[in-house]
Amino acid sequence: MSHQHHTFHNPPSATPADVRTALDREDIGAVLNAMVECALYGDGDWKGSQDLYLALLDHNDHQVQALAATCLGHLARVYGRLDEGRVVAALRERRVRPHVRGTATDALEDIELFLHPQRARWRGRLWRLARPGTWF
Q1: Which of 4, 13, 77, 91 sits CB 3.0–4.6 Å from 104 for a disulfide?
Q2: Domain that holds residue 99
């Protein structure tokens, strides 16, 4: 068995239009890359990105659906705001899908952490107190 070295590269910036272009080409690899690039290094149009990811929660490819949930959590971290009611409702609704359940739950936790840090901190403290065997 040989060892292979991988090199990390920061993804370039992308826009919702770049994601749509990749979708039109039906190149799932390019779609996934553009989705991450748009969420992390987009053009500042958080609302356009949010609407795109909400629509992609219902894409026919499971990878795209799961990554759309993750990207909604990234938007909360990067921009510090979302249309929280719409996003939270959509993510909760999609948690019934096994391939989206984990990423939707993680995104919901990210949204709470980055949009409501004090509430998230208190929830963590209460969780530690409620767990048996925890003394701090």
Answers
A1: 91
A2: 16-130
